[in-house]
Amino acid sequence: MSDILQMVKDKDPGQREFHQAVMEVMASIKPVMDRNPEYRAARILERLVEPERVILFRVPWVDDQGQVQVNRGFRIEMNSAIGPYKGGLRFHPSVNLGILKFLAFEQVFKNALTTLPMGGGKGGSDFDPKGKSDLEVMRFCQSFMAELFRHIGPDTDVPAGDIGVGAREIGYLFGMYKRLRNEFTGVLTGKSLNWGGSLIRPEATGYGSVYFAAEMLATRDETLEGKTCLVSGSGNVAQYTMEKLLDLGARPVTFSDSSGYIFDEAGIDRERLAHIMNLKNLRRGRVKEYVEKYPAAVYTESDPGQEFNPLWNHKADCAFPSATQNEINAVDAQHLVDNGVYVVSEGANMPTVPEGIDLFIENRLLYGPGKAANAGGVSVSGLEMTQNSMRLSWTREEVDNRLQMIMKSIHRTCLDAAEQYGTPGNYMNGANIAGFVKVVDAMIDQGVV
Ligand code: NAP
C-alpha cells in the first residue's frame, strides 16, 4: 500500500491534502486487499486514486469598478462506478487542485455509504464571495457556469454547495445553466424550495452529524440530553448542527469563523441561534459581532502563530468540527481528550489531522469520521434528485425520516464492517472499508474503463 502512496506523492508532489486523504484510506483497507487478491490484479488502487476526468478552466468576470478579474474554475469527476458524479462546489481563496482532489476522493466513499446511487466529484474556484456585492457574485457564477455547463447534467454530474456556495450562488448557477441549455432539470442540488429544492436540504449535513453522534452514544446507552458541545464554524453545517443539538436537549457553547471564535458559557439557546443565523445569513456579518448583543460571551481572535486552537480547549462532552479541513491538530486533539470530550462527530470534511485521529482511537472516543458523519447532506441531495426525477416534493417529515434512516444505516454499516475486519468500534476503518468494497466491486463488474 505504501507503494501507492509513494506513487501519488511522486506524481503530484504539491497535493498535501490529497496525500493525507489517500493515506487514511490505504491504512484502513489493507486487510480487505489481503483478503481479495483479485483487487490487486485489477490494479484497483491505481485506478481509484486517478480521477476519471479533471476539468480546469478560466473564469473571467467584471467587478463593480469595471475591472476585469480572472479566477480559476475546477471540476474533478473522480469516480462514476455507482452513479453520476455528485459533490459540492467550493468558492474560497484556498481552493486548488489538491484540495479538490482530496474532497472528491472522500466523496466517493461517502456517497457509497449513503445507500443511494451516486458517484463522487467536487469542484469550485479560488474566488472569494466574502466582501463581494450580489451583482459581482452573479457575474462570477454566470461566467463559471458558461464553461461548466458542457460537462454536467442530471445523469452525468450533479454539483451542490459547499464552503462559500449557498442558496444565492446555486440560484445564479442554475439560472445560467437553464439559459444555456434551455432545459429545467435537476442538474444542481441545494436549489430553493419553490424551484425544485428539497425540504431539509439546508439542514441535512448538520442534522445528520448530530443524528450520527446520537447513534454512537446509543451504543453506550446514552443520549445527547444535557451534553455540553463544542461546535466550530458558523456557516450552513454549524448552524444546523446547533439547531439539532438544541432539539435533542444538548448545550452548544462555541462557534467560530476564520477570524475568531465565541465561547458562550450560558449556552447558545434558540434565541441566540436565531441571532447568529440572522447575522451570518442575512447581514453576512462576522461572529465577533455576537458579543455586542450578548456581552457575557467571550470572543477570541484567531492567532495564526498559535500552536493550537483555543476553541477546542474547553471542558465539554462532545465536539462537532464544522468549519474546514485540518482544523483539529494533534495539540487540539490532546486538549479535547484532556477536557473530557468523548464524542467527536465531523460535520466538516477531514477536519482532524491523522495524529489527532490516532489519539481519539487510542483513547476510545466515539469518533465519527466526516465521510460517515457528514453524509447527511449528500444523502438529501440524492433525495432531491429523486424528487426532481419524479416531479414531486416530499414533506418535511418524509425527508427527515429518510435522513434519519440513512444515518442509522451508515452507522450500522460502519460498525459491521469494522467488526468484520477485526477492529470493532473503529468507525473510521468501517467507513473506509464499506465505501471501498462497494465502489471497487462495481468497478470490477464494469471492466477496465
Ligand atoms: P459555509 O457555510 O461556507 O461555512 C464555512 C464556515 O467555516 C464559516 O464559518 C467559515 O468562516 C469557516 N471557515 C471556512 N474556512 C475556514 C478556515 N480556513 N479557517 C477557519 N474557518 C474557516 O460552509 P459549510 O457548507 O458550512 O461547510 C463547512 C464544512 O462542512 C466544510 O468542510 C464542508 O466541506 C463540509 N461539508 C458541507 C456540506 C454541506 O452540505 N454544506 C456537506 C458535507 C460536508 P469564514 O466565514 O470566516 O470563512
Fraction in beta strands? 5-15%
- Sheet with the most strands: spatial strand order: 1-2-4-3-5
Distance between the termini: 22 Å
Low-confidence stretches: none
Name of the CATH architecture of the domain at 204-373: 3-Layer(aba) Sandwich
List how many beta strands DSSP finds.
Answer: 13
CATH superfamily of the domain at 204-373: NAD(P)-binding Rossmann-like Domain
Helix content range of the residues, please?
Answer: 40-55%
The helix count comes to 17
CATH fold category name of the domain at 204-373: Rossmann fold
Question: How would you characterize this protein structure?
Answer:
The protein has 17 helices and 13 strands. With 449 residues, it is α/β, with parallel strands linked by helices. The strands form three sheets. A five-stranded mixed β-sheet has the order 1-2-4-3-5, sandwiched between helices. Helix 2 (16-35) crosses helix 17 and helix 8 packs across helix 15 (376-390). The model has no long low-confidence stretch (mean pLDDT 97). Bound molecules: NADP nicotinamide-adenine-dinucleotide phosphate. Keywords: NAD, Nucleotide-binding, Oxidoreductase.
